[in-house]
Write a structure and sequence with these properties.
With about 200 residues, the chain is α/β, with parallel strands linked by helices. It contains six helices and six strands, in the order ααβαβαβαβαββ. It has helices spanning about 10-25, 40-45, 80-95, 110-120, 140-155, 165-175; strands spanning about 50-55, 105, 125, 160-165, 180-185, 195-200. A six-stranded mixed sheet has the order 3-2-4-1-5-6. The longest helix has 16 residues, at about 80-95.
């Protein structure tokens, strides 16, 4: 019988590292990015230099009605009561993980603004670069470039929460988040971003 060396393998960390390597080489889809240890993700967010992208909370349906007007929430797809409760829970999750206040920026769409406000993490500021381009796909590339440029200009020493849409998050990171899911990323050189992992909130 072989002698024990006392060397222990953290299987979860090995699987995480292997999954990230496979994703980097295209052997796994971008949406298969492993959920890293959530404790480490929250610690990274608190430490500065990182950003939390948040897909707005539950809003039944897809896209927006044909009579959509940005200035009129009645013409938009909005949060359900379940979505409002989810947004409040997400705010509670931040506080439970040591983040009482944050710089909160949002798409101008009502479902995003309401999500951002219900987090109760601080004043909410609109950022047009976070606006949906679901119905105007020609805006995908220029708007994503604008968001990358914006990220590069920011002082990320404080916690930043960006509330936006699935199409925006997917274009920037390659991740397809669920409603209310957080994507934790780090802005790196040349306007690129590095995805650390995701945090499910339901």
């Amino acid at each position: 019988m072989g002698r024990r060396t006392g060397f222990k393998i953290d299987v979860r960390r090995v699987i995480t590292a292997l999954t990230l390597v496979l994703a980097a080489y295209g052997w796994l889809s971008a949406t298969a990015v492993v959920r890293a240890d959530e404790t480490a993700l929250w610690a990274a967010l608190r430490s500065g230099g990182h950003v939390a992208l948040l897909r707005h909370a539950l809003a039944p349906g897809t896209g927006d009605p044909a009579d959509f007007k940005l200035s009129d929430c009645r013409t938009q797809r909005n949060l359900s009561e379940e979505g409002r409760a989810q947004a409040r829970r997400i705010g509670d999750l931040f506080r439970a993980n040591g983040i009482e206040r944050a710089r909160v920026l949002t798409s101008q769409w009502c479902r995003c603004r309401e999500t951002a406000e219900l987090l109760q993490l601080g004043p909410v500021t609109e950022l047009p670069a976070l606006n949906s381009f679901f119905q105007n796909r020609e805006d995908r590339e220029p708007q994503t470039r604008a968001l990358r440029a914006w990220l590069q200009r920011q002082d990320l020493s404080t916690v930043q929460v960006l509330v936006t849409h699935q199409v925006n998050i997917s274009a920037l990171t390659g991740v397809y988040p669920s409603s209310g899911e957080l994507v934790i990323l780090q802005a790196v050189a040349d306007g690129d971003v590095s995805v650390l992992g995701t945090i499910a909130t339901d």
